[in-house]
């Protein structure tokens, strides 16, 4: 009897154990399947984000190439709400990057938001060497600070940059009263104030800001960076021979990046000078014993330009005087009905 | 005893059934994954080929906006015009180490030739930076207008761009 009673009990325990084992097995397999699909979803999401960033950066590249075409044009380009990081040689959108190649592009280190402002200007020294592309966002506010709001140099700078920029012209006394209006970034351009540092207004303690000193008399600029409670000068003074170069410093907020991009610009100038020198030497034999003789063969101005721009920093005063000399020679070529130099 | 054996067998059968279902499920999953990957590979290959074609068009655009190639009158650019002598000058400068270094950032691993088609035929290598190893080298031909500054005449030409994959 006892044996008979014990058997069903043992049998039911074994069945229970087998059933539990079966459930544990199903749970483990279920967890493995779930983990597998979660992994796929996570990987696919990462891949989709990377693909999106790649596509945006590629499209932006096409837009930036197009923006270079029309000199003097300003464009407001709607973009996805992304953060773009610029370095001297590349720009990054998430994990995707694009090479800048030889393009001369001035921009803040980070641009955030869903709009881009592009401005293109030719760099003529005096022949076109390259196009400068300036990039910013409506979320960056530019304060042009003059001795007062009627200061001619400050007014001239204010008027020369595009109206599409988020810009304001203020006096030095108003600078201390600037408030945080919720802009992502503030950039102060101090024009002819003769000072090397500026105390940050109390209301801007937590705001991301940078600055630039512009000396329009000496044709030079100097970058300002934030210390604890002041904007202090950083790096050397940079000379500019053309306003286009100064605008580069206006839009860059990183001194090293500006210097690196300007080095590239002068490299381009050097290379274009070499190409023009070669061109004129090819043309020269056709103009022997004519009034055009002497304009082309081993053009001395171009030879000097090549030497002056051989390394960075170039010989700025030499570049300045060569500009005028080449301009005169081009006019001379026009007067004598010879092919123009540029 | 017989009942016990039958109970154990049925549990074993259940387990075997589950394993078989799992096995079939994973086999189907693997087949699906392989199919999807093959599809992706085909798409990627097509996209890469398209990207190389686009690169050639981009390069021709880049060249056409180069001040070293454009025809200008006092810095006013003549549209769709390439200055023949500037291009020949460019071909000489691009051969120098400094030139190759600068233009390789712009043109990468490509070969760009200028072919003057009419009147007369001539050929210049504007830039040559071949990849040591490449699987394919598609060639694109872009017709252009060449300007001779000394004779003030226009010629027909072609830019031959070889991109190395």
Q: Please, could you describe this protein's structure?
A:
- The complex is a heterodimer of chains A (342) and B (165).
- By secondary structure, chain A is of the alpha/beta class.
- Chain A has three domains: 138 residues, no CATH class; 112 residues; 74 residues, no CATH class.
- Chain A contains seven helices and 13 strands.
- In chain A, strands 8-7-9-11-12-13-10 form a seven-stranded mixed beta sheet. A six-stranded mixed beta sheet of chain A has the order 3-2-1-5-6-4, sandwiched between helices.
- In chain A, helix 2 links the parallel strand 7 and strand 8.
- The longest helix of chain A has 66 residues.
- The N terminus of chain A is likely disordered.
- By secondary structure, chain B is an alpha+beta fold.
- Chain B has one domain.
- Chain B has three helices and six strands, in the order H-E-E-H-H-E-E-E-E.
- A six-stranded mixed beta sheet of chain B has the order 1-2-5-6-3-4.
- Chain B is rod-shaped and about 100 Å long.
- Classes of the chains: A alpha/beta (342), B alpha+beta (165).
- At the A-B interface, helix 1, strand 6 and helix 5 of A face helix 1, strand 1, helix 2 and helix 3 of B.
Provide the descriptors you would attach to this structure in a database record.
heterodimer; A: 342 residues; alpha/beta; 3 domains; seven-stranded mixed β-sheet; six-stranded mixed β-sheet; 43% helix; flat; disordered N terminus; B: 165 residues; alpha+beta; 3 helices; rod-shaped
Task: Tell me briefly what this model is.
The complex is a heterodimer of chains A (342) and B (165). With 342 residues, chain A is of the alpha/beta class. Chain A is built from seven helices and 13 strands.
| Share of residues in strands of chain A | 25-35%
The share of residues in helices of chain A is 40-55%
What Rg of chain B is obtained from the alpha carbons, in whole angstroms? Answer: 31 Å
The quaternary state of the protein chains shown equals heterodimer
How many domains comprise the coordinates of chain A?
3
């Amino acid at each position: 009897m006892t044996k008979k009673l014990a058997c069903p009990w043992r049998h039911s325990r074994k069945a229970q154990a087998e059933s539990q084992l079966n459930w544990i097995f199903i749970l483990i397999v279920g967890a493995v399947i779930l983990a597998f699909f979660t992994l796929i979803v996570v990987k696919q999401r990462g891949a989709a984000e990377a693909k999106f960033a790649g596509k945006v950066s590629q499209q932006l590249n096409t837009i930036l190439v197009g923006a270079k075409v029309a000199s003097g044009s300003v464009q407001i380009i709607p973009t996805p709400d992304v953060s773009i990081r610029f370095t001297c040689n590349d720009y990054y959108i998430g994990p995707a990057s694009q090479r800048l190649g030889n393009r001369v592009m001035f921009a803040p280190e980070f641009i955030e938001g869903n709009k881009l402002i592009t401005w293109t200007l030719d760099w003529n020294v005096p022949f076109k060497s390259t196009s400068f592309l300036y990039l910013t966002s409506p979320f960056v506010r530019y304060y042009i600070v003059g001795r007062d709001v009627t200061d001619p140099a400050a007014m001239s700078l204010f008027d020369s940059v595009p109206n599409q920029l988020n810009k304001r012209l203020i006096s030095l006394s108003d600078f201390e009263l600037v408030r945080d209006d919720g802009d992502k970034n503030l950039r102060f351009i101090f024009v002819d104030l003769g000072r090397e540092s500026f105390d940050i207004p109390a209301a801007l303690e937590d705001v991301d800001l940078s600055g630039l000193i512009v000396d329009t008399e000496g044709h030079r600029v100097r970058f300002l960076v934030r210390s604890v409670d002041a904007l202090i000068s950083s790096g050397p003074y940079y000379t500019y021979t053309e306003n286009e170069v100064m605008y580069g410093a206006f839009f860059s907020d990183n001194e090293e990046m500006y210097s690196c991009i300007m080095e590239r610009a002068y490299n381009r100038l050097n290379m274009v000078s070499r190409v023009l020198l070669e061109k004129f030497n090819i043309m020269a034999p056709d103009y022997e014993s004519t009034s055009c003789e002497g304009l082309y063969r081993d053009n001395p101005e171009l030879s000097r330009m090549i030497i002056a721009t051989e390394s960075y920093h170039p010989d700025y005063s030499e570049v300045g005087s060569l500009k005028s000399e080449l301009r005169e020679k081009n006019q001379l070529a026009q007067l004598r009905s010879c092919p123009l130099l540029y | 005893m017989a009942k016990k054996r039958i109970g154990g067998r049925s549990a074993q059968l259940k387990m075997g059934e589950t394993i078989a279902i799992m096995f079939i499920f994973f086999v189907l999953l693997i087949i699906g994954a392989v199919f999807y990957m093959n599809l992706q590979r085909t798409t990627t290959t097509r996209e890469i080929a398209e990207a190389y074609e686009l690169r050639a068009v981009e390069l021709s655009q880049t060249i056409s906006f180069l001040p070293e190639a454009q025809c200008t009158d006092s810095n006013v650019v003549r549209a769709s015009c390439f200055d023949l002598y500037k291009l020949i000058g460019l071909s000489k400068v691009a051969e120098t180490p400094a030139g190759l270094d600068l233009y390789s950032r712009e043109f990468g691993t490509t070969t760009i030739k200028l072919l003057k088609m009419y009147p007369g035929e001539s050929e210049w290598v504007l830039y040559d930076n071949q990849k040591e190893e490449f699987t394919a080298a598609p060639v694109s031909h872009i017709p252009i207008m060449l300007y001779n500054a000394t004779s003030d005449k226009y010629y027909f030409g072609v830019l031959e761009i070889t991109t190395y994959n």
